[in-house]
Every structure is written in C-alpha cells, then in structure tokens.
What does this fold into?
Amino acid sequence: MYGTVVAAILALVGAIYSIWSVRDMGLAIESRDWPITPGVVTACKLLTRTNSESGDTYRVALSYLYSVQGSPFIAERLRFGDGWTIWKSGVERIMRKYAEGTAVTVRYDPDRPDEAVLEPGMNGFIVYKMTFGVLLLVGGVVYLASVWL
It folds into this structure.
C-alpha cells in the first residue's frame, strides 16, 4: 500500500514537472523570434541555499530595465527553465557577464511585453527538467502497473 502511494506521488510529480518543462520549452523556442530592445542590468547577485546533507546550491538573482513603445518594464528572467545548480563557477560566470550597469539585449513577448528574457532559446536546464520529470513519471507508472497487473 505504502509503495503504491509513493509511486502515485512520484508519477504525479513527474507529470507536473514534465508539463512545466514542455511549457518552458515552448516559450524558450518562441523567445528566439521575439522582438529585441536595449536594456540595462539593475541588479545581479548570488543566491546560496545551504543544505547540510546535499551541500550548497546556487542561483543568480538579476533584474533588468527595458522599455517597449515608451513604457518601462523590469524583468528578472535570464533564460527559461533556470533553477538552482551545484556549479558555483557557472553562476559566477553569469554574474560577471551581467554585472549591474551592463547594457543588454532584451527579447520580449510582443503580446505581453512584461515577459522578457536575456538568453532566448533552449538550454540544458530545460532538458534536465524534462528528463527528470519523465523518469519520475515513467518510474511511478511502471511500479503502479506492476502492482495492479
């Protein structure tokens, strides 16, 4: 019984993760064709999340200012699918590239100009999330099928 509940939860989490990844994938692909506008990075800092069992994970928190047809916007998305990572050096590289005051090229959604991204297109985070979600989903479903059949 306990195994069935755990498997069902894993399958549900996997399905949610997969759907979330498909959404990010679609937006990432669309963002390559979004219009561009100049912007400037207004803040960029390192976030650290400490876990005594698994170690530290890192993420960049950045914001940038841009305008569309004279209206100013502030956005925080570097790329679609971003998340926490164990690779501090990669986060530090991003921080050097997008230091406060850096001029940037912003791609924005023409239908929702408040939605923007600095690095459009697919990236490894989306692929990782999709793979993780599918593995959870398939693992949960296979276990449930083995119990019920």
Summary: DSSP finds three helices and five strands in the chain. The longest strand covers residues 36-49.
